């Protein structure tokens, strides 16, 4: 009851209540900022991981010192291993693509229709056209951003040019061939939507001079995080000399940088909550000084030092507790509507806040982690509680005689 009365503003105590209000806002905004930023960082990592692992194999098997002409047998052996979801051979090559609007470089991946159907990130995100008859025809599937950059639509031809063409008496001549666009997909990651082209497996073998062989075999694990446990089995199951790498090796620098940035952001944003906790100390110190007469009266009526200390601990901790709860509520609301908020701010400012060219993703993701949110709440409550101890201790140590001497 006493703690609640001290928090309520009266005419003579308006300034103290203003400080308490700013402390409340500081903790609320600090907690909300921490939750929002960490949720965006988690969502960013999760989306990138989903996109990268959804289109690239978890384990890549490539031949050493010989052509991979027995790819069917290798694929069958790898698919029989425990922990392996499926495996698919592929032909990969780089070429220039030419359209009415631009000439760009692209990464071509020759795959079979049955294997492409196993990649839901591609097969379930076809914006235009269809993958039906993909193996039988000579059409190609291109990303939406690449199609826009080239200025082509469904059914339009794209010229594909590679310097490694036919060998003639005059040397190697470039190979130029036109392919119609039979499907346009959008993965949601600008790097893939703007650079990858899927081509029928047999056609890719012919175009890149790899008749009867494959570039490698991609293995998709049941659990991508457990690739370390199946890597040895994959090396042995290939049944031939191979060079095996997993997704963690190929993207180690990228995800390590994300993890470092995430931890540093947490430490930096924690300072916001710390500053708000310091405001609690200043506000509580002023409150103790202002309530010296009340403390002396309570002590003379029989209140113990512990009782006085509890009053002021509850007063300061209440600011931190309600500020933390309000921050969690605000952060949750923002995280649930982060993309709508981004679009609204972009519309108001006439700027693009989350450019896909810079951040790879076409939407701003946010993924709240329950344990992380609990850690933020625990940290905020701990700082708020610690901030009340010194002012409460000063109140408990106040001598009633000194406080009432000049009353």
From TrEMBL:
Q: Which UniProt keywords apply?
A: Cell membrane, Membrane, Transmembrane, Transmembrane helix, Transport
- Domain of life the protein comes from: Bacteria
Tell me a GO cellular component.
plasma membrane protein complex
- Give the MacB-like periplasmic core domain ranges: 23-235
Q: Which GO terms describe its biological process?
A: lipoprotein localization to outer membrane; lipoprotein transport
Which residue ranges run through the membrane?
A: 15-41, 264-288, 308-336, 373-393
Q: How does it sit in the membrane?
A: Multi-pass membrane protein
Pfam families, per the entry: FtsX (PF02687), MacB_PCD (PF12704)
- Where does the UniProt annotation locate this protein? Cell membrane
**Predominant location category:** membrane
Is Membrane tagged as a keyword?
A: yes
Does the entry feature the keyword RNA-binding, yes or no? no
For the ABC3 transporter permease C-terminal domain, which residue ranges apply?
A: 267-400
Which family does the entry's similarity section mention? Belongs to the ABC-4 integral membrane protein family. LolC/E subfamily.
NCBIfam families per the UniProt record, alphabetical: lolCE (TIGR02212)
The protein's name:
Multidrug ABC transporter substrate-binding protein
**Organism in which the protein naturally occurs:** Pseudovibrio exalbescens
